[in-house]
């Protein structure tokens, strides 16, 4: 077995603590040499894969005022000795890392005023863990001219390591090479970071609170029928969605639930006849009294925001089974937050940005991590904030992240499918955080498979849920 499958992401302070725990290794510059050697190896590998060789290629470093630049300069010295033509632009010439600059110069590295036209790769060593705000003027002017791939040291400069906020301007990297453990920005700003490579420098970071399930985690945790399973033991999910006016939400939400697991789906609401037309396996009832037992409820998509909807939401949240609230249910909840605040059973809220704003009284803004944690803590419920990067936060601040990697699911009704999938997983016994993150992964994969390069509607996405689960299981 190699690395543990779950990916963990650390705050800058946690990395600092881990570095300090190495004592002399840090003080004597051993950590930095290890970091630089790993960085040089990654740059060399990239040159080889792009140009077939390392010797004779041309790389330019862009250097700031701290140890991030030190990493790049020491790596430049290593590359120079391997026959690479390495130059460096110093954006703060008086404050460049002194030992790194000396090593770079003595290896034959040249200091230049701007990135030469001959550069085939640029290394971003402007700022790392201590960066705040956007790229400053000198570095921004240099990167504005760069047309070749960028390898970022630790984090792309201008991207906040702890929040993943991508400031403007900032560096957009093809590859980010980091040290010892992943930073939170790597999960939250995947488009700016590109491919992330972790160099082992012999530190042990601890206590990650931001994590990402691997495909293997999702596949292994996905509920499948076993030898002793019955329709009941796999979890019955109740769907309260859609209405005469919006029957589609009931159909799509049921579609997600039916496809996700082999447990049973019950439907409650006025679109019952239409839902059964589409899915004869769904057991329907016109109202809650006739619904029968479930192991989890999904309530809200297209279900209306009137007094009857409020009453239904109140009754569902008063049960002791896990409840997922989405869409119209969230709008109702925004006026009655006490319904979840006072609830002591697993609860998953799945807002998009607009619904988040209704619930929280402000938009998630750029720092989505703090925003989602804040709302989860305030409401005492798990909150899944939708987006290309979906964040699922528990009230205690633990967060699972999912990067969809595509935007095909940005289509009407896709959210209804997501809540159906997540609801089925809740009914099967997954925790709200894992159910939300696993559903988001399969949903994104289903969108990608269904789209295959062309736009899709939510029905096609729902039909691809099974192929998506199958493909995750195939990579185990
Ligand atoms: N100390 C060590 O032994 C190790 C350090 N590491 C490297 O050291 C980095 C951290 O180094 P530092 O603590 O010196 O901090 P940085 O190199 O991240 O930042 C240095 C300075 O940049 C300035 N700055 C902040 N925001 C800026 C912006 N937007 N534009 C321009 N300048 C800005 C600040 O004045 C700050 O003092 C890590 O990211 C990593 O690359 C790694 O080599 C691992 C080992
Ligand atoms: K950097």
Automatic annotation (TrEMBL):
Coiled-coil intervals: none
SUPFAM superfamilies according to UniProt: Ribokinase-like (SSF53613), YjeF N-terminal domain-like (SSF64153)
InterPro entries (alphabetical): CARKD, Nnr, Ribokinase-like, YjeF_N_dom, YjeF_N_dom_sf
EC number: 4.2.1.136, 5.1.99.6
Cofactor binding annotation: Binds 1 potassium ion per subunit.
Positions contributing to AMP binding: 386-390, 415
Domain (YjeF C-terminal): residue spans on this chain: 214-472
Binding site for K(+): 68, 124, 157
Domain of life the protein comes from: Bacteria
Positions contributing to (6S)-NADPHX binding: 67-71, 128-134, 154, 249, 302, 352, 416
GO molecular function terms attached to this record: ADP-dependent NAD(P)H-hydrate dehydratase activity; ATP binding; kinase activity; metal ion binding; NAD(P)HX epimerase activity
Cofactor: K(+); Mg(2+)
Pfam family, one: YjeF_N
Catalytic activity: (6S)-NADPHX + ADP = AMP + phosphate + NADPH + H(+); (6R)-NADHX = (6S)-NADHX; (6R)-NADPHX = (6S)-NADPHX; (6S)-NADHX + ADP = AMP + phosphate + NADH + H(+)
Listed CDD domains: YXKO-related
Domain spans labelled YjeF N-terminal: 9-209
Keywords from the UniProt entry: ATP-binding, Isomerase, Kinase, Lyase, Metal-binding, Multifunctional enzyme, NAD, NADP, Nucleotide-binding, Potassium, Transferase
GO terms for biological process, alphabetical: metabolite repair; nicotinamide nucleotide metabolic process
Oligomer and partners: Homotetramer.
Function recorded in the entry: Bifunctional enzyme that catalyzes the epimerization of the S- and R-forms of NAD(P)HX and the dehydration of the S-form of NAD(P)HX at the expense of ADP, which is converted to AMP. This allows the repair of both epimers of NAD(P)HX, a damaged form of NAD(P)H that is a result of enzymatic or heat-dependent hydration.
Family: In the N-terminal section; belongs to the NnrE/AIBP family.
PANTHER family to which the protein is assigned, alphabetical: ATP-DEPENDENT (S)-NAD(P)H-HYDRATE DEHYDRATASE (PTHR12592:SF0), ATP-DEPENDENT (S)-NAD(P)H-HYDRATE DEHYDRATASE FAMILY MEMBER (PTHR12592)
Protein name from the UniProt record: Bifunctional NAD(P)H-hydrate repair enzyme
